[in-house]
């Protein structure tokens, strides 16, 4: 099968392009997505090739972007909305929670809103305030929304297309610190369904569960642990709502130990839900409590302090060591 080496950002661009080629009802809209190609150049070249009626530069009004997308979706279009930075999504939160998430249920299934809301999320790029948030728990907690996060160029290319094809509203989280990392993309077909977790690295001694930007850190930790003779399995969640826990359960029942890693603050984060489900389903297989490595329960710090805030290799390996000490 044909393969190509792409950065995660280029893979998203190629996936959007293919979706627009396949379906004339697919529209891209957001702040600076047209002529500029987006601040991260994810939509670069799309307006030139598809025109300004399908790649639409919007005003700086996130509530207006999502409100307009709702109307377009009701009329049969498939809008793909870009929220320029994670911290800018909050003006649109009311539209997302009160309308996007509820319309299908409110209409007793008669109205679908096939809207994809792309959000570059997480830190690690030295940005200023409101540019490094991890808001995934807000959306994963909201019934009626699907939430996914790609971690590799291959997943970015296929998951954006699968999300656009879905009739459900989807929050599509993109790990902005990974936009420039390269990887192989199998152009022949998607490896997995959209809402499925995957084993990114097999192992026998402990399980690391991560998603989005932290998958790379988990894989690095597994490589470092291998030097000490420990086989660490890494599970990439990929889908945050609905959670596909079967690969996690199967892994933890074999390894007996689990550590969950994410950038967002620990209090009521995704890690708490994952840990609770592992404890409920795998209790008699556990050799140690399920541990979490997360951001701290503070607002995201200034850029010069973010490396102290973000989970890193040392913190993940320390959690693995603590798990083995039980």
Mean pLDDT: 97
The end-to-end distance, rounded to whole angstroms, is 46 Å
SS-based structural class? alpha/beta
Taken in chain order, the helices and strands follow as EHEHEHEHHEHEHEEEEHEEHEHEHH
Helical residue percent band: 25-40%
Strand order of the main beta sheet, please? 3-2-4-5-7-6-12
Compact overview of the structure:
Helices cover 36% and strands 21% of the residues. With 326 residues, it is α/β, with parallel strands linked by helices. A seven-stranded mixed β-sheet has the order 3-2-4-5-7-6-12, with helices on both faces. A five-stranded mixed β-sheet has the order 9-11-10-13-14, with helices on both faces. A two-stranded antiparallel ribbon has the order 1-8.
Keywords:
326 residues, alpha/beta, five-stranded mixed β-sheet, 12 helices
Description:
It is built from twelve helices and 14 strands. By secondary structure, the protein is α/β, with parallel strands linked by helices. The strands form three sheets. It has a seven-stranded mixed beta sheet with strand order 3-2-4-5-7-6-12, with helices on both faces. A five-stranded mixed beta sheet has the order 9-11-10-13-14, with helices on both faces. Helix 1 packs parallel to helix 7, helix 3 packs parallel to helix 4 and helix 8 packs across helix 12. It is globular, with a radius of gyration of 19 Å.
